[in-house]
């Protein structure tokens, strides 16, 4: 596919916004503008020439960013890419659902995959997924970000794509606990394998395709995040297993660990919609100081015995 030069504005100067900016610069025909709340330029000026904007803010920045953009009369042809991995505490909606609700006529594209920003910043090879109901918009974003170090796949299940990246953050906290307690590879394999149907149960309830969870944005991101101390969510779990307090861990991280908020929202959602999320429930109890890491493990091991696949009907 022939790439046409595009003007891209990235909103959010955090770790992920900076990394995405660097990835897009690999294609030298693109013009990249990075905007953050500290920029001297106004957001209106920053997006004035944009064909595509990328929201790389954390979950708590999604609504404030949308409100700022709603004050500007944006074109309905502007492609909006969301790279946030979180759930809205007020509505339990995903970021793409919030963006689509705010800008119903604009094409919305989700970008999500196993993309630890520290590895991307080193120029190591990685792959990701861009997903949209508007396949032309997804192809435009695919050609903007594709390079010899970043392989970008297309997909038409945006909710599934972003839920893979969002829900694995909860499991990454559990994986950090598992490694922090030195429970071994058997335990870790069991944890991650059982996490996948749990993620799929939530995803299908919210309208995602189960297959999406076997791709890069699901299983791929689960593997990356649950097996790397570069993951902030993993480090939350690891710290808790070492007896550190959550507040202290988050201060030391000095950066976003979306899994903490996502766990709280997910448990709210799971209670309302009666979805079985046994691993997330233990993470929730641990994060909220109701149990110790050891008790979380014991609770999972003591669950009622069952068949391996009796809760998946696909
Ligand atoms: N780092 C990574 O490896 C990856 C991160 N992600 C996801 O990207 C998102 C951002 O992560 P990351 O950049 O690492 O986080 P950082 O903690 O490095 O940065 C936080 C980002 O959120 C923005 N933000 C925070 N609060 C607000 C607010 N109230 N209003 C507007 N913007 C706000 C900041 O904007 P500002 O710059 O204006 O201060 C900044 O861009 C998360 O959802 C994360 O899960 C996805 C893939 C990889
Ligand atoms: O989403 C990520 C990698 O794909 C980043 O993980 P953390 O937010 O846990 O650092």
From TrEMBL:
BP GO terms, sorted: carbohydrate metabolic process; glycerol-3-phosphate biosynthetic process; glycerol-3-phosphate catabolic process; glycerophospholipid metabolic process; phospholipid biosynthetic process
Active site: 168
Binding, NADPH: 16, 37, 85, 117, 232, 258
Binding site for substrate: 85, 232-233
GO cellular component: cytosol
Keyword Lipid biosynthesis: yes
Domain Glycerol-3-phosphate dehydrogenase NAD-dependent N-terminal, chain residue ranges per copy: 43-137
EC number annotated for this UniProt entry: 1.1.1.94
UniProt KW keywords: Cytoplasm, Lipid biosynthesis, Lipid metabolism, NAD, NADP, Nucleotide-binding, Oxidoreductase, Phospholipid biosynthesis, Phospholipid metabolism
Entries under Pfam families matching the protein: NAD_Gly3P_dh_C, NAD_Gly3P_dh_N
UniProt-recorded Gene Ontology molecular function terms: glycerol-3-phosphate dehydrogenase (NAD+) activity; glycerol-3-phosphate dehydrogenase (NADP+) activity; NAD binding
Family of the protein in this entry: Belongs to the NAD-dependent glycerol-3-phosphate dehydrogenase family.
Job of this protein: Catalyzes the reduction of the glycolytic intermediate dihydroxyacetone phosphate (DHAP) to sn-glycerol 3-phosphate (G3P), the key precursor for phospholipid synthesis.
Protein name in UniProt: Glycerol-3-phosphate dehydrogenase [NAD(P)+]
Species in which this protein is naturally found: Aphanothece sacrum FPU1
